[in-house]
Amino acid sequence: MPEVKSSVSGGGERASGYWYGPDGSDASAVDVLNLLRRYREAETAMRGRVRGDMGMGEKDIVALRYLLEARTRNAVLRQKDLAARLDITNASASSLVDRLVRHGFARRVPHPGDRRSVAVEATDQGDREVRETLRNMHDRMYQVVNEMSPDERATVAAFLSAMTRSLTDRCPE
Amino acid sequence: MPEVKSSVSGGGERASGYWYGPDGSDASAVDVLNLLRRYREAETAMRGRVRGDMGMGEKDIVALRYLLEARTRNAVLRQKDLAARLDITNASASSLVDRLVRHGFARRVPHPGDRRSVAVEATDQGDREVRETLRNMHDRMYQVVNEMSPDERATVAAFLSAMTRSLTDRCPE
DNA sequence: GTTTCATTGTTAGGTTGTCTAACTATTAAT
DNA sequence: ATTAATAGTTAGACAACCTAACAATGAAAC
């Protein structure tokens, strides 16, 4: 059974500020949106801490995680791929990889089969550092979800999908 | 009943990449985490679009939203307050307000009762612009949550609270 | 009331991370 | 063989943050 305690139906704290219902408005709906915002803020803060701890920028960390994920799949990532996934230019990706290499988190290796390209690999150090930094957090998150019932997971999944669609469906006009 | 369709129990698309279960691992739990990540990415992308549309930086928009929220409460925000909420220095807040003023989104007014402080107010133009830009999106999000059952809202609220705790409980170590 | 310390905001100068534009090296197409 | 497209690098500009030093006001001590 999920150990998660609802802070809406159950607990006290009312997610404060920011959202305020369009009209008369069901308070608990607003609460949910405020909680979503809170989660976002917590994640942003966490990224800030990690950034501080590892002395890296925002995208550098995301890039490193892509590299690690690729490594587990024995896949090869080029700078181009990083640029695409991070939505930055090739030029920026180039200096991003410069930074990763300078810090010892990644390595440039010749790309097999296309001599224009440079394959980028995470180093063991990068692997270690990221895992150590994020492992516990990931474990906690996984555990929370794992302890939920299938129905609850379906509800949450539907919620997240719908929220994502709300954001994706082109916001202004 | 909620019109939201679960993409886990229901639909096809399997939230791809990134998360991969610690061990053997219940796939749908991983799906939920991937959906959470997707939501994050969608929100980041949305902010990017808004930023582009309005020609402002990330924090500028958040600041403007704080100002608008304060306005609806007839509250007075000082630059200090903005700096605190945005986690930037007073110096940065100063130039942030410079930018808002330059773009016509905010106004510096003498603070009633403390001549050191400068109160910052959103202008009507700032109000209009933000509302027009974000209104539809907010409405869509609100609608989704409003159409959920109380039980579903409680489940989602518990999930978000637990995820936030997972992030907040100090990540490394 | 004057001296002293704390608070708020500004300015100057530096760093970082992005961008565009111009260039090289390789690959693919005609 | 020439031409066009792709991958990466470099140089230079810009935006937004930072720290440090400063001015002005407020509060507290004496």
TrEMBL record, chains A, B:
Pfam families reported for this sequence: MarR_2
Residues covered by the HTH marR-type domain: 29-165
Domain of life: Bacteria
Residues making up the signal peptide according to the UniProt record: none
InterPro entries given in the database record: HTH_MarR-typ (IPR000835), MarR/SlyA-like (IPR039422), WH-like_DNA-bd_sf (IPR036388), WH_DNA-bd_sf (IPR036390)
PROSITE patterns given in the database record: HTH_MARR_2
Name of protein: MarR family transcriptional regulator
